[in-house]
Every structure is written in C-alpha cells, then in structure tokens.
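Contributing new complexes? Match this layout with iron/sulfur cluster.
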Amino acid sequence: MPHPRDAHSTSLIEKICTVNVQTSEPFDAIVVGSGMSGGWAAKELCEKGLKTLVLERGRSVEHGTDYITEHKAPWEMPFRGRGDRQAVEARQFRQSKAGPFNAYTAHWYVDDVDHAYETAPDGDPNEVLWVRGYHLGGRSIMWGRQSYRLAPMDFEANAREGIGTPWPVAYDEIEPWYSYVERFVGISGEALGLRQLPDSEFLPAMALTGPEEHCRDVIAERFGRTLTIGRAAILTQPHLGRGPCHYCGPCDRGCTAGAYFSSLSSTLPAAQATGNLTVRSDSIVHSLIYDEEQDRVTGVRVIDQVTKEAIEFYANVVFLNASALGSTSILMNTKTPRFPDGLGNQSGLLGKGIMDHHFKCGAVGDIPGFDDVAPYGNRPNGIYIPRFTNLPWDSSSRRDFVRGFGYQGGAGRRNGWGRGAGMPGVGVALKENLQKPGAWEFVMFPFGEMLAYDDNYMELTDEVDQWGIPIPRVVGGLKENELKMREAMIADGVEMLEAAGAENIRTFDQPYRLAEGIHEMGTARMSDSPETGCVDRWNRVHEIPNLYVTDGAFMTSAGCQNPSLTYMAFTARAVDHAVESMKRGELRV
Ligand SMILES: Cc1cc2nc3c(=O)[nH]c(=O)nc-3n(C[C@H](O)[C@H](O)[C@H](O)COP(=O)(O)OP(=O)(O)OC[C@H]3O[C@@H](n4cnc5c(N)ncnc54)[C@H](O)[C@@H]3O)c2cc1C
Ligand code: SF4
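Output block (do not edit by hand):
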C-alpha cells in the first residue's frame, strides 16, 4: 500500500530513499529534524552503516530547484520585492521581526498562526522572538554562515567563575571533532593563533576591504586587538564536489552552487550516497516512545503534517535535532510514570536557562579617503574582532561584567539610489552625485555572551495546536550583566572607530528580544549528573542511554561566538559514541 504522503513527496532524496515505512523493519537510528545538526547526525550515522530514518516536520525542499527567489530581480517579485504587508501581518507577524526576513526569504520562515507559541506581550522585556524554519534543511538554508570555535576559556568559565553548571567536557576533547567537521564543511578564514578564538581548518580567507585593513592596523597598534575577516562556511575554492562562491550576495535565498554549507548542499547528499538514508518530511514528532522495562526509548510518535495521521517508528537509537526549543518540547511532551515531568528532567532544569547572543547595539562611522578603492563583488562576509574583555590570562582586560563579546560588521561603500533621500541637492547635480560611489561606512556590530538564567525558560501550555501538540510558552530577557556589557559593546566600538579616524560616528541600541540572535540554546544543558542538567558528556539524556540531544539544547554556556559549528562537532562526536556503544551491544532494544 503506498504511503498517504507519497502524493506530497517531490524531493530527489525521497524519490531515491523512501520506503514504505509502515511495513518496514525498525530502523537502526532515527534522527528528528534535518537542519544543521540533524543533517550531521544523518551523515555520520549513515556513513557508519546504520539504516537511518530522518523525520522532518516541514515540507520537502529540493536543493537548487526549490530556491524559488534565488535569482529574482525586484521587478520579478510581487510588490517589487517589498513584500505583501497584509499577508505578513496576518501570518508572519512574529517571524517578520527577524532582521533577515524579507520578501525573498519569507517562505523559509514559519507561519506564526500554524506554529504559534506564547510569550510576553509585544515590547515587554520578557518577549521572546523564536525564529524558525520548518522545511527539509531547517535553518541551515537560512543561516549567516559565520563559523567559530569556542575556546578553552569558554568551556572553563562556568566552573572557574562559579556561574551556572560546569561543562563536563574540555576543549581538548572537542578539538579533533571541530577539525573533523570543518574539513567537510569548508570554512574560509585566517589563522591567527589566538587563545580566545582557536583556529579552524581553513580554506583561503576572503579579502578585507581597504578601510577594514586600515582599521585592523590601527586597532592592533592602539589597543592590541585583532580584526580579521569573518570565518565563514563559504567556499573560496572547489571543495568536495561543491563550487566556490562567486560573490553574488543574497545567500539566504539559497545557493544552487552549494558554495555555502547546508544540510541540502552537503550532509544529506553524503548520507544519501550511502544507501542507508530514508527521509520522511511532513512528519511532526509528537513524543518519544519509552519502554520502562528496558529503560530505553524504542521509537517516536509522529503526526503527519498533511493527513494528521498518527504513526510510530522504531529504532535502536534516537537523535533529537529539532532545534533547542523543538527538542526540549519533545522531551517535555514525553511524560511517563517514571518521568512525570518529561524525559531528562530529573533536575527540574529542562527548559530553563535559555541563552542567545544579544546584539542590536553598536556603532557606525564614515571612514574618510579610500575613494579609489572598490569592494570586490558582493562579499557574503564581514569582519570579526574576537573577544578582548575578561580574558583569564590578562588582568588588564577585566570589566564590571563577566564574559564578553565579539564584533561583526565591516566597511562597505554606501552605494545605490536609496541614499539620495538623505543627501543635499536636487536635479541633475544630485543625480550625478548618486552615480558616484558613496562614502565608506564602517559598522561595528557586536554579539555578546548571555548567561543561563532559570527565569529565561520555556514550558508547555495546556493548549494544543492542530496536530494535538502542546503549544510552548517561552519567556525571558536581558539581565544586569548583559545590560552592563551592552554599554561596553557600544563604547568600545566608538573608541575603535575614533582611533581609525572615522567621522560622523553614530551609536545604536535597539530593544533586543530573547532568541532574536537566532542562537537560542541551553534548554537541556550538559552536566556531570542528572541533578544538575539533562544530558551527559556524550549528549545522552542522563537516564536513557539510547537517546541523544545534539542541537543547541545541550549547550551549558554560550560563549559569544556563533554556535552552529559547535553543534556540528558535538553531533559528530555523539554519533561516534552511539555507534561504539551499539557495537558493544549496549543500545539494542
Ligand atoms: C537568518 C539566520 C542567520 C543565522 N546566522 C548564523 C551564523 O552566522 N552562524 C551560526 O552559527 N548560526 C547562525 N544561525 C543559527 C543557525 O541557523 C542555527 O544555530 C542552526 O540551524 C541550528 O541547528 P539545529 O539543527 O539545532 O536546528 P535547525 O537548523 O533549525 O533544524 C531543526 C529542524 O528540525 C525540524 N523540527 C522541529 N521540530 C520538529 C519535530 N517536532 N519533528 C520533526 N522535525 C522537527 C525543523 O523543521 C528543522 O528542519 C542563523 C540562523 C538564521 C535563521
Ligand atoms: S554569495 Fe557565494 S555563497 Fe552566497 S549565494 Fe552567492 S555564490 Fe552562494
């Protein structure tokens, strides 16, 4: 009997791999979610010989052909690319608050009516902006590709400062796994040998612009700080069958060349090539099936997004990669007599301590000169200034807050006709001016570390969505440490711009909502014991040896670096651990 959802399946992956799941044997492994971390779990499990089922709640997406706005000009778009305001206000009133949301990317962001969550009212300091992409590939299609390792000091900070839960792993243990994933992903960047920002396995770096080189030299000389090109999961040379970047610019619409890393361009095709992969999209995982006698999860309960049919799938090991809040919802929605408050919640900490990187403040200024210098193409990358505050080995870096921040941003020319609105002049003279390249503008755009606070949390409400799944409530916001840090994030940016001779320096400090950095993490934190966290040093739920959580939920602290590379490294390590455990017969159910 054909599966009811075959009618909806258009994906090449699915055409090749879909089996009649209702009559198939149990799988060796189930991966919940096909985004950044789920793609890695699938690749590693399949390459290690496990028959693996990936369950994705959203629609199928075909790499390339489904990047429907990739090469669209404004005049080919409805409303000249300005977006359908009424539709957005009706269905994407939350997602559209995310900075990268626009008419060209709106189809990657969820519908806020269908995928509702409760939070504090608009403008309230506890309002949370939970930005999601529910489709094959998840947010790996939408991401900004900035890729940085955490440093030894990041893994040590909680224990050293007595803040939050100590990490049960050290940098040295993760270091080989960073290298392992980087060699596959392809990270372009510059090796610097910094203690606060370990180097990756780099492809050649992209070039800085002239004013960026100038600022780099000035801030190195004046402050002893480093400015480098962003470390990005974007290819600068051919790599494992993917083409290099041609600097066209609008990456978040999708990249048919596969020049940036995503599940669709990279990990899922690798998994597919093994013949061990089955992908089922439109499959919303409702909860886990737990067998008390065996003390194992035996599978998952799924609601078909389209038909609303309930189906169960079975496997020896389950990986949760539904994104931090998504995986935590699944754990919370699995209540058993032994775990009445949800799996992995013996500590009572499940859902607590949501972290993100706070931003939306900084400084901008015009860099005079460099009139004869032009940027090369639309470089899909910016600068990075690694953390320079509160470095454990440098007492002169101490501030009145803990941890620190790194700057992104960079210098570009203010080109285009739009700038004419703010320029003096009229008529021919104004038009002639607008045809010339504009001034160089340098933006200092910092991302700051957030600590884990119990009152930044999620929980499940009694209300259910159309698939019978409880709607989460998510609340939280900035506290004193982050607010103090923001003052420094602005002031230090101004100081560096002034030193670089910038003119017309402006600062900005806009209201930030928790999770708006789209790096939400920490709701099933890693810890030494079930009393202090949810997963163990191998990403296994403490009480359940065949259940792994390897998306951002496991993060015990946030660092200030963009986190996805760390999720990838821990995922590859966790799969290795699971497969070794299976070989020893420890996971069979
Ligand atoms: C615009 C933007 C810019 C970003 N820039 C960066 C950056 O520069 N650097 C960086 O490190 N990070 C960046 N991020 C964050 C990055 O995308 C995430 O950290 C990363 O995708 C998280 O991986 P994940 O596997 O946890 O979740 P996702 O990639 O979100 O994947 C989760 C998947 O699980 C599926 N799912 C959810 N619930 C269920 C369920 N119940 N059943 C089945 N499937 C389910 C979802 O549909 C989704 O496909 C950015 C994100 C966005 C949106
Ligand atoms: S700028 Fe590079 S990575 Fe981005 S879409 Fe263009 S080719 Fe792809």
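Reviewers usually confirm one structural detail per submission. For this one: The CA atoms of residues 290 and 297 lie 4 Å apart.
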